[in-house]
Amino acid sequence: MTRTVTPMIHVEDVAATVRWYESIGFTALDVGEDDGIAVFALLGFGTGRVMFTAGGRASDAPRREVDLYVETEGVDALYDYLKDRVDVFERPHDTFYGMRELIIRDVNRFWITFGERIAGPGTEGAPQDA
Length: 130
Description:
By secondary structure, the protein is mostly beta strands. The chain folds into two domains: 1-55, 2-Layer Sandwich (glyoxalase-related enzyme like fold); 65-125, Signal recognition particle alu RNA binding heterodimer, srp9/1 (2-Layer Sandwich), CATH 3.30.720.110. The protein is built from two helices and eight strands, in the order E-H-E-E-E-E-H-E-E-E. It has helices at 14-23, 75-82, and strands at 8-11, 27-34, 37-45, 48-54, 67-71, 87-94, 99-105, 111-117. The strands form two sheets. A four-stranded mixed beta sheet has the order 1-4-3-2, covered by helices on one side. It has a four-stranded mixed beta sheet with strand order 5-8-7-6, covered by helices on one side. A hairpin with a 2-residue loop joins strand 3 and strand 4.
């Protein structure tokens, strides 16, 4: 039996959120509308999925209630591609747990961390494939 967890995040403007995520490489897999207004969306990034639904509120908090963690490859190249187009919170850096990470904020100020496994000291604590 396949089991998958798909985060669902409430945002103020689903359509604007979809446009922003598409601009950084996500794909809109499904968008539902009510009276012509986007009320939910399912987006994909590789094999990962995230849903956005209407009903959230804008926030100027330094950190929101939810972060997204995206395992990928080429964090440095991704940084070069995104650095002039998004709010970069932390430039690419190596962590003690064996990941190279880049942290950005989305249009709703949620953090998105892109991480890739690196070789070397500390990789024994890095996430492993199940």
